[in-house]
Amino acid sequence: MFEELSPTEFKERSNSGELWQLLDVREPWELATASVPDAISIPMGEVADRLDELDREQPVAVLCHSGGRSARVAGLLAQTGFSRVANISGGIDAWSQQLDSQIPRY
């Protein structure tokens, strides 16, 4: 099971001291268009083979364009033993609207 966080909720929790890993599962061309600093980039199709790049004990929040792919990856992480997982609802599109209008919408 995983939780749903809006970009605003994610930012508030991070600012309050919660140490989240932000996993961006979008494709490289999407990252070239719009990205969030300090995110770990692993395209959705590669996550299962690259789980060792993430800390299972540290919370992971998953980001994509609108929240669909990230929800699938969040489910995978929860099923494979990650201790705390969240999906960023609305994805980078909502991030741009709620937190940083400098991030292009596409």
As residue ranges, the low-confidence spans are none
Spell out the helices and strands N to C. EHEHEEHEH
Using only C-alpha atoms, the radius of gyration works out to 12 Å
User: Which strand order spans the largest sheet, edge to edge or round the barrel?
Assistant: 1-5-4-2-3
CATH architecture classification name: 3-Layer(aba) Sandwich
Instruction: Please write the CATH class name.
Output: Alpha Beta
Strand content: 15-25%
What's the end-to-end separation, in Å? 29 Å
How would a crystallographer describe the biggest sheet?
5 strands, parallel
Based on secondary structure, the structural category is alpha/beta
CATH fold naming: Oxidized Rhodanese, domain 1
Oligomer: single chain
Give the overall silhouette.
globular
Provide the residue-averaged pLDDT: 97
Per DSSP, the total helix count is 4
- Indicate how many domains the architecture comprises: 1
Helix amount: 25-40%
Give the tally of β-strands.
5
> Can you identify the CATH superfamily?
Rhodanese-like domain
